[in-house]
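Side project, low priority. Logging it here so it doesn't get lost.
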Amino acid sequence: MLTLKVITENPEEVIRKLARKHFDAKEYIAQVIELDKTRRTTQQELDANLAELNRISKTIGQLMKEGKKKEAEAARAQVAAMKEANKQLDERKVSAEQQIHDLLVQIPNLPHDSVPDGKTAEENVCEKEGGVIPDLGEEALPHWELAKKYDLIDFELGVKITGSGFPVYKGYGSRLQRALINFFLDNAHEAGYLEIQPPYVVNAASGYGTGQLPDKEGQMYHATADDLYLIPTAEVPVTNMYRDVILNQSDLPVMNTAYSACFRREAGSYGKDVRGLNRLHQFDKVEIVRIDTPEHSYESLQEMVAYVQTLLEKLELPWRILRLCGGDMSFTSALTFDFEVYSAAQKRWLEVSSVSNFENYQANRLKCRYRDENKKTQLCHTLNGSALALPRIVASLLENHQTPEGIRIPVALVSYTGFDMIR
C-alpha cells in the first residue's frame, strides 16, 4: 500500500509512474487528496474544540464557588453541546480515514525507474541467458508422455481423487520431488537463509498484509467456515511473521527460506499451455524472503537474482532472466525479474521463478518497521523469490535430460535422488 505522504506530496509523479503499469490513478489520487483535506481540517476543528471544551470545563467549578449557578449551568450546557459536536467531527474523521484506506488498497505499487515500458509479456527485456538448449530431434517427448512412459506422474489418478491440476507423483517421480525440495533448501541454508516451516493456511489479515487480499481473493482457496485461506506461496506466512514488528537495523537483512505446498485456483486457465505440469492448482515450491532497509534492498535483489541463477546452472538447464515491463508486473511489485527455463520438447520458455522487490508497499500494510541508527522508526523493504517452483523445473529436467537410455539426473542432484538415471 502506498503511503499517504507519497501521494499527497507527489500526486503528479504517482499518476505518471502508475501509468507505466497501465493503471489510471487520476480519480483515485484526487479522491485521496480531497479526503485527506477533510481528515486534516476535521482534526484541526476537533483539536480547537477540545481545547475550548477543556477551558470551559475548568470554569464551571469556579462559577459554582462564586455562587453563579445560572452561569455554571449555561457552561455545562455548552460543554454538552460541544461534546456532541465533537462526536460528529470524530465520526467524520474516522469515515474519511476509512475511505482513504479503501482507496489506497486499490492502488498498485509504483514501478521502479528501471522498469521497461510495455503492456504485455512480449515486451519484457531479456537481461541475461545461459546454459545450452539441447537438440533432441523430432523424437523428443514432452514431459507428460515421459511421465507416463516411466510411471512417474499419474495425472488421471489426480483427477479421480481431486480434480484437474492435482497430479499424483509415484516412485522415481516422488523421489525426484523430494530430492529437489531438499536440494533447494540445503542450497538456501548454505547461502545464509534461515529455514522456516510455516502453516499452509493463513487468516485474512495475513492475506491482506502481503497484498493477496483484496486484489487476488479469486485465485485463493477459501475455507469459509473458519475464514482461512490456503497459501498461494510460502511468501505469505513467512513475510507475515514480521507483521506489526519493529526490527533493529543491525538485524537486517532478515533472510528466510521455506518449503511449502502451494494452492492456486488459477480460475479460467485452460488449453495447451496448462497441459501436464505447466500449470497446477497444487504444487511444491521453496521460497526465499528478505526484509531489508531501503538503502540496501536493491543490492539484496541482485543477490537473490544471482542466487537463483546458480540453482539453474547446477541443474544444467538452459535459462534466461527477464526484466518485467510495467504492464506485466504484479500489483504489489516495484521491480521483478522472471527466470525462465527452456522446454526442449515443447520448444518454448517456461517461467520457474519471479524475484521481486516490493519496497515499502507490503511493509506499509504489514506495519513492518525497523529502528535506524538514530532510533527513528521507518518502514522496511520486503523482497521475495521462488527458489524454486518444482513443476516446470521437473518438466524441463525430464524433457531436456531425456536420452535413448532414460532420463539423466544432473550431477548436483544425484546425491539427493540416490540414482543417476530414470529408466
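Brief comment: The radius of gyration is 28 Å.
Revisit when time allows.
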